[in-house]
Amino acid sequence: MPAFICTACGTQYPPSEAPPKACTICEEERQYVPPTGQGWTTPESLAARHFNSFRQHEDGLIGIGSQPGFAIGQRALLVCTPRGNVLWDCISLLDAATVTLIRGLGGLKAIAISHPHFYTTMVDWSRAFDCPVHLHAADRAWIMRPDPAIKFWESETLPLLPDVTLIRCGGHFPGGTVLHWARGAGILLSADIATVTTDRKFLTFMRSYPNFIPLSAREVQGIADALEPFAFDVIYGHFFDRVIARDAKQVLKASVARYLAAIGGTARRD
After folding, report:
1. CA dihedral for 102, 146, 209, 189, sign (positive or negative)
2. pLDDT tens-digit profile of 175-187?
3. Which of 84, 127, 146, 244 is most buried by its number of CB atoms within 10 A?
């Protein structure tokens, strides 16, 4: 039986003879059902129409995204460290070339995912590389395909490797997580918990991006507070081109201040 995948958000459901009647993720206000209605595909059908592409952002950091774009269109990041490799976030397509490439680089020690919109086919990825998937327990209700490989953590931080730490920021989802890599001046993989804006000069923060629901001042300040103890100079968002290439910690501070002024009614009005 196929494990059906939602074509709008990329979430995979347990194997069944027929697709689910609805996608729980898309029915909730942070996502959406397309005007054309709910659609489904299978891993085999997805692989027949798409392939994964790769971009080395810098030494030891490789972006993985599907072509043409599928569902939300995010790309995953492969973090290669001397103590093992971590897959950050997940995409729906796991093709043979991707398996070959990652195995050639030493496989995966762990998978970590920022929030439910990017859970996608995490169980397939886990089984392909025989590794655990680390998710924050606050978001466990949004897991559509449970599996013993899923490991929950409940604290505010989780050290995955000596230089790789997961940080619970909340915001977009209660368990919204970012990954900090303590290499050089520090690297932050923020997904869309703190989203790199289109001009790549700021970050923004939303409960729902497609439905334009903002976060509260308290939630945005909570993200800033969670990241304050960590040093970082670069931020990688959830799309290939969404990168803050330098002074990222200062960009975060300026972005939080701009956001709070805007929703608090104190922003400059020209």
Report:
1. negative
2. 999 999 999 999 9
3. 244
